Structure formats: structure tokens, C-alpha cells
Amino acid sequence: MHTCLKTLCPKQSLVCTFVMQYRPYTNTYVMLQINLARIFKARGIDQPYKFLVQSGFVPFTAHKYKNGKVDHIRLDHIEKLCVILNCTPNDILEWRPDDLLDDRPSHPLQKIRTRDKKLEINKMLSHFSLEKLEEIEHLLATHS
Fold first, then answer.
1. Could you tell me if 121 and 44 are in contact, meaning their C-beta atoms sit under 8 angstroms apart?
2. By the 8 A CB rule, do 72 and 17 touch?
3. Which residues are registered as beta bridge partners of 100?
4. Reported confidence tier of residue 120, pLDDT bands at 50, 70, 90
5. CB atoms < 10 A from the CB of 64, how many?
6. How many angstroms separate the first and last alpha carbons of the chain?
């Protein structure tokens, strides 16, 4: 339920709206949203704002992305985020169904549905012995 609009922005890129925004004329909400907090945590980025600014985003945009206050996002920004975070758009987009009719288990958007999964790998690893950490490191090195 997101809409894509062609705009006359300087780079002539497409802009997509992904915000939980109420549409009074249809009594619906936009259900596709940007959520960078999860990927920042997974990548060990403790200062997302600083990271985004250093990666070339203007401070205003970096602040919006860091706080999830996004009412639209340019496709070139999605691409840039995916490049700098080494991820896909599915890793930064999340779907929040508006009602039970939208929440069909077979719907393809279920793959990017908001879940209560937490990436706590750093916390988990902090409890391992140095020997176990070396084993894990070796295992990861052989699979990458």
C-alpha cells in the first residue's frame, strides 16, 4: 500500500512514500516503513547519525533516518543505505499490516513484516570464552 511518485527533484530520481501516515479519504495507513535501527545494531554502529553524515547524508536527512521519522525516501538513498550497510532493501524496510484483512499469511510482504526478533549477537558473544570465540571466528572465516 505504498505509492511511488515521479518528482522533479534535482537528480530526477523517483521518490517513494513509506510512512505510517493516515489517509483520511480511504481510512487506511501506509504500512511500509523504513527501520534502520535493527541494521545499525547488527552492524555495531553505535552512533548512527554520525555514521550517516560521514557517509554523505546531510545532517537533516541523517537525523530523520536515524530516528525513523521518514515520510518519503529517494530511491538513490535506499541504494546508498544498502551499499554502506551491506544489505538489501528488505533489510531496511518493514511492513506493518493495518488490519486483519491485510495480514494474510501467504502475502509476500510477510517476509519484511515487523517481528520482535532482536539481534543480540554482541551480548551473546560476550559470554563465550576466548577459545570459543576463536572457534567461531574460524568457522565464520571458512564460510565467508
1. no
2. yes
3. none
4. low
5. 18
6. 37
Domain total of the chain: 1
Q: Which helix (H) or strand (E) holds 4?
A: strand 4-6
Q: Which of 88, 57, 86, 91 is nearest to 74 (CA)?
A: 57
Examine residue 125 and state whether it is found in any structural domain, yes or no.
no
CA angle 135, 139, 144 (to 5 degrees): 150
Beta strands per DSSP E along 8-137: 14-16, 22-23, 28-29, 32-34, 73-74, 93-95
Domain that holds residue 71: 4-116
Judge whether 64 lies within some domain. Answer: yes
Cα–Cα distance for residue pair 107/96, rounded to 1 Å: 12
Residue 49 lies in a domain: yes
pLDDT in tens, 88-101: 998 898 877 766 55
DSSP 113: B
The pTM score is: 0.60
In sequence order, the 6+-apart residues with CB closer than 8 A to the CB of 15 are 4, 5, 6, 7, 9, 72, 73, 74, 75
